[in-house]
């Protein structure tokens, strides 16, 4: 298991060109930008037991390779989120419950693989920079796309600053520096939470 620590910031589509060309990247980015597509399908039970337990389960496709990810309940304050995360490479677009069973939360032990079903998807392009900010390594990801559930849609336009190694406080420092020129708003809402909101709108 790893622990994910990230700062999520929303922005308008009109601000994207300004963010992408910000001088910050020339000064601190050691890799990138790289842009690629990510398709994600989120799973839960019919009564949404995982969501109630603040657990997210998804299969992600990137360049024809599939990854299964489980994220557990964490805490989120002013856009800064800390939570447990497990990820495995899998052979296709079907859940591998044999791996999940080893790390499955105790509160969800009564749930079987047969009860898990796809409920919604996210579909977006990611532009990625690897940043070294005074010795702290950060992955900066600009995501643009959609959360989709049936005919319902919700726009994705956000910057995620994920701590790779170093001082957590640097995430806010980077946000402050970029925020001098780009309107960035802290967001505590994950893509999975937005997907469940779409489901509620359909119910």
Spatial shape:
globular
Helix run count = 6
Could you give a short account of the major beta sheet? 8 strands, antiparallel, barrel
- Round the Cα radius of gyration to an integer and report it: 17 Å
CATH homology-level superfamily = Hypothetical Protein Pfu-838710-001
Side-by-side strand order of the widest sheet: 1-6-4-3-2-7-8-9
The count of domains is 1
Overall structural class, as computed from helix and strand content, comes to: alpha+beta
CATH class: Mainly Beta
| CATH 2nd-level architecture | Beta Barrel
Helix/strand order: EHHEHEEEEHEEEHEH
Overall mean pLDDT: 92
Which segments are poorly predicted (pLDDT under 50) over 5 or more consecutive residues? none
CATH T-level fold name: Hypothetical Protein Pfu-838710-001
Roughly what fraction of the amino acids lie in strands? over 45%
How much helicity do the residues have? 10-25%
The number of distinct β-strands equals: 10
Question: How many angstroms does the end-to-end distance come to?
Answer: 35 Å
Written account of the structure:
The protein has helices spanning 16-20, 23-28, 49-52, 97-100, 169-179, 191-202, and strands spanning 2-10, 29-44, 56-62, 65-71, 75-77, 80-90, 117-133, 136-149, 152-165, 185-186. It has one domain (2-202): Hypothetical Protein Pfu-838710-001 (Beta Barrel). 21% of the residues lie in helices and 49% in strands. It is globular, with a radius of gyration of 17 Å. The N and C termini lie far apart (35 Å). Strands 1-6-4-3-2-7-8-9 form an 8-stranded antiparallel barrel. The chain has 6 helices and 10 strands; from the N terminus they run βααβαββββαβββαβα. The longest helix is centred in the C-terminal third of the chain and has 12 residues, at 191-202. The protein has 203 residues and is an alpha+beta fold. A hairpin with a 2-residue loop joins strand 3 (56-62) and strand 4 (65-71). One of its GO terms (molecular function) is inorganic triphosphate phosphatase activity. It holds the Pfam family CYTH. This is Adenylate cyclase. Residues 2-202 form the CYTH domain. InterPro entries: CYTH-like_dom_sf, CYTH_domain, YgiF.
């Amino acid at each position: 298991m790893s622990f994910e620590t990230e700062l999520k910031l929303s922005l308008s589509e009109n601000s994207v060109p300004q963010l992408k060309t910000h001088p910050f990247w020339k000064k601190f980015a050691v890799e990138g930008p790289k842009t690629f597509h990510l398709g994600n399908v989120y799973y839960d039970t019919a009564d949404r037991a995982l969501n109630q337990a603040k657990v997210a389960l998804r299969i992600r496709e990137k360049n024809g390779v599939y990854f299964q990810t489980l994220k557990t309940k964490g805490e989120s304050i002013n856009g800064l989120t800390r939570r447990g995360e497990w990820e495995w490479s899998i052979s296709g677009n079907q859940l591998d419950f044999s791996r999940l069973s080893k790390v499955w939360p105790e509160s969800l032990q009564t749930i079987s693989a047969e009860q898990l079903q796809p409920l919604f998807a996210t579909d977006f392009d990611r532009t990625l920079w690897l940043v070294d900010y005074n010795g702290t390594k950060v992955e900066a990801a600009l995501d643009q796309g959609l959360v989709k559930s049936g005919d319902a849609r919700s726009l994705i336009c956000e910057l995620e600053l994920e701590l790779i190694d170093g001082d957590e406080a640097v995430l806010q420092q980077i946000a402050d520096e970029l925020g001098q020129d780009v309107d960035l708003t802290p967001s505590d809402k994950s893509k999975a939470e937005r997907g469940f909101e779409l489901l509620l709108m359909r119910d």
